[in-house]
UniProtKB/TrEMBL annotation, chain A:
PROSITE patterns: RESPONSE_REGULATORY. The keyword Phosphoprotein applies. InterPro entries: CheY-like_superfamily, Sig_transdc_resp-reg_receiver, ST_Response_Regulator. The modification 4-aspartylphosphate is found at D62. It comes from Aegilops tauschii subsp. strangulata. Keywords: Phosphoprotein. Pfam families: Response_reg. This is Response regulatory domain-containing protein. Signal peptide: none annotated. GO terms for biological process: phosphorelay signal transduction system. Residues 12-126 form the Response regulatory domain.
TrEMBL record, chain B:
It is found in: Cytoplasm, Cytosol; Nucleus. The modification Phosphohistidine is found at H81. Pfam families: Hpt. Functions as a two-component phosphorelay mediators between cytokinin sensor histidine kinases and response regulators (B-type ARRs). Plays an important role in propagating cytokinin signal transduction through the multistep His-to-Asp phosphorelay. Functions as a positive regulator of the cytokinin signaling pathway. May play a regulatory role in salt and drought tolerance during plant development. Residues 40-135 form the HPt domain. The keyword Transit peptide does not apply. GO terms for cellular component: cytosol; nucleus. Its main location: cytoplasm. This is Histidine-containing phosphotransfer protein.
Length: 134, 140
């Protein structure tokens, strides 16, 4: 499912989260930051989107999801050669940081992710994208 | 009742929820998003409704697991973790803390401890559910 902030489509964000209320909150934050948001319910759906050729600037993963976890999905997506896309692990699990960073995530943010934390992350992606276009 | 009076009641309710620690800054952030136009009106109500439905289901699932002759503590862990995630995302602080308190009992594989912890989770959830429902009625 794709959501679009009116008038702004600069950053393509994929949110991978199985819990509906968490999806709603984080996707609202991302839309507020003018991202074009695609939703996936688990790691396998995220992998399938990449296999279909979809491109994203940033992917936010929950850790524990049915079918395929966030770290498992990161391993598969990185193995496809997707080394440029920013991968962010998000979890309420105290031990999640190592699980994400050890498989190639760029960043880990504990749940709940706040706008104050997400804003600079999105800005960094915007800056990188602008620099890459120059 | 006049709109101003209802607004005052709503503000008092929300203030109470914060001062008692029932909700935290995360909930405040969701409110701010709605108030400054960053999200549709009814956003907080939608989040609260989703959380209530989700938590209701999870608590029932945990109770069913603890009712088994042999308890699958890994599944209990997974459900409590899910509830911790959703409660923290909406800012339901006391529910989140009750979930954190739960951990020691399923890690120790103590059915009795888990039942006590579930009772606390259920109690905190009922409190915040009632407040959220009152909030939504006042907002209407």
């Amino acid at each position: 499912m794709e959501l679009k902030a009116k008038g702004f489509t600069s950053i393509k964000a994929l949110l991978v989260e199985d819990i509906e209320v968490c999806r709603l909150v984080l996707s609202t934050f991302l839309l507020r930051l003018h991202c074009e948001v695609t939703l996936a319910m688990n790691g396998k759906e995220a992998v399938d989107l990449f296999l279909e050729g979809k491109k994203f600037d940033i992917v936010l993963f929950d850790k524990d999801m049915p079918v395929m976890t966030g770290p498992e999905a990161i391993v598969k997506i990185r193995a496809m050669g997707e080394t440029d896309v920013k991968m962010v692990g998000v979890s309420a699990d105290d031990h999640a940081m190592e699980a994400f960073m050890s498989v190639g995530a760029d960043l880990f943010v504990p749940k709940p992710m706040r706008m104050e934390a997400l804003g600079p992350i999105i800005q960094e992606v915007i800056n990188k994208k602008k620099n890459d276009m120059v | 009742m006049a709109a101003a009076a209802l607004r005052a009641q709503l503000n008092a309710l929300l203030a109470n929820m914060f001062t008692t620690g029932m909700v935290d800054e995360q909930f405040q952030q969701l409110q701010s998003l709605q108030e400054d136009g960053g999200s549709a009106s009814g956003f907080v109500a939608e989040v609260a409704t989703l959380f209530i439905d989700d938590a209701d289901r999870i608590i029932a699932d945990i109770a069913a697991l603890l009712d088994q002759p042999v308890v699958d503590f890994d599944k209990v862990d997974a459900h409590v973790h899910q509830l911790k995630g959703s409660s923290s995302s909406v800012g339901a602080q006391k529910v989140k803390l009750a979930c954190m308190h739960f951990r020691q009992f399923y890690e120790a594989k103590s059915k009795e401890g888990c039942l006590m912890a579930l009772a606390l989770v259920r109690s905190e959830f009922c409190d915040v559910r009632n407040k959220f429902q009152t909030m939504m009625q006042l907002e209407q």
